[in-house]
Amino acid sequence: MLTSKISAKPLIAIMGPTASGKSALALKLALELKGEILSVDSALIYRHLDIGTAKPSLEELQKVPHHLIDILEPEIPFSAGQFCTQALNCIQEIETRSHLPLLVGGTMLYFKSLFYGLSDLPPASAELRHSIEVEAAEYGWAALHDRLKQYDPEAAARINPNDPQRIQRALEIYYLSGQTQSALFQDPKTAAIQHSHRILCLALIPEDRALLHQQIQARFDTMLAKGFIEEVEILKQRPGLHTDLPSMRAVGYRQAWAYLDGEYAYATMREKAIVATRQLAKRQLTWLRSWPGLHCFDPNDQNCLTQIRACIQDFLVNTLPKCG
User: Fold this and answer.
1) Structural domain count of the chain
2) Is 46 helix (H, G, I), strand (E, B) or coil?
3) How far apart (Å, rounded) are the C-alpha atoms in residues 133 and 165?
4) Rounded distance between C-alpha atoms, residue 114 and residue 194, angstroms
5) What was the pLDDT predicted at 8?
6) Is residue 321's pLDDT more than 70?
7) Is the pLDDT confidence value at 2 over 60?
8) 200 & 63 share domain
9) With 90 as the cut, is the pLDDT of residue 124 above it?
């Protein structure tokens, strides 16, 4: 059993690519540390997206308090700013119970926004967005992604060419402000939690990428066996739900929806979903490579849990510096 001397407001973040074992580790540590889990995942916030998001089971949710899971209907978009507001409220509530907040997930933009603050970004422009959509209809989103590379190569490297919402927003920011999204992110205007908390950033990063790919494939096949296609069939019946919404752009859901629309065969859907999940993992690893103050562990190392426990013990007892 780990012991702690919590006095200043410590906070532990557990990051890593999809299918690396973050949730299982968090559950174990929360039980040992008298902690509560705060999900940092842009898909787990949605109700009815259960199988395809590998949402914690009812038994797991009963073992340890979880936050920011099942808080919205899938028709409702959710921004990084909204996440920060709700996450801060959850952290304060957890701390009033003298429990340790464990922030767990793979939505790296959420982590960055919460830890380092949100930039003063220009508000959305419906007219400009329509103009960008008209261009996309004529030339394709891949062409607009290529244009974004010219304006903001750093943002283009982060954004998937098949993610029209983020391509559109990055171009919109540039057109409206004359500054790149990347530059604005580097100049945050809002308060950042790193100023009020000591943060230990842990990352599960498999050294064997081939093994990670195998785990991604196995997990998706398990989702299919559990009824993932049937889950998406039910979602498709919701009148306000469509594939342009963030919830349905989550990996797996977009491909399953297209399969149910007859766009391609089952085997093609499976392969496309697995490839998309691998690409997501690659983007997450790209974020993590430049993350400051990160403590990395290989989840396939038999000594991984022992090493993580020692790192946490050192952090809680000796007051390690903030992340960043």
Assistant:
1) 2
2) strand
3) 10
4) 8
5) 59
6) no
7) no
8) yes
9) no
Q: Residue 198 in contact with residue 322, Cβ under 8 Å? A: yes
Q: Assess whether 193 and 81 both reside in one domain.
A: yes
Among 52-61, 242-251, 312-321, the range with the most confident prediction by mean pLDDT is: 52-61
Token pair for 157: 């490297």
13 sits in which H/E element: strand 10-15
Question: Which of 185, 216, 232 is where one domain is finished?
Answer: 185
Token couple for 153: 């190569």
Same domain, 210 and 271: yes
Return the structure tokens found at 122.
Answer: 């220009």
5 in a domain, yes or no?
A: no
pLDDT, average across residues 150-175: 87
Residue 203 in any domain: the answer is yes
Phi, psi of 212 (to 5 degrees): -60, -45
Total length of the chain? 324
Are 149 and 223 contained in the same domain?
no
For residues 109 and 70, which has the higher predicted lDDT (pLDDT)? 70
The residue to which tokens 């030339």 are assigned: 139
Per the structure, the complete domain to which residue 258 belongs is given by 10-118+188-318
Is residue 138 domain-shared with residue 233, that is, in the same domain?
Answer: no
Among candidates 109, 83, 108, which has minimal Cα distance to 16?
Answer: 108
pTM equals: 0.80
Instruction: Give the H/E segment covering residue 184.
Output: helix 181-185
Residue 149 predicted with pLDDT over 50: yes
Helix or strand or coil: residue 67?
Answer: strand
Q: What are phi and psi of 10, to 5 degrees?
A: -75, 155
Q: Is the pLDDT of residue 234 over 50?
A: yes
Q: Which pLDDT score is estimated for 320?
A: 43
Q: Look at the block and give the residue holding tokens 């766009």.
A: 263
Same domain, 306 and 203: yes
Show the tokens assigned to 248: 């349905």
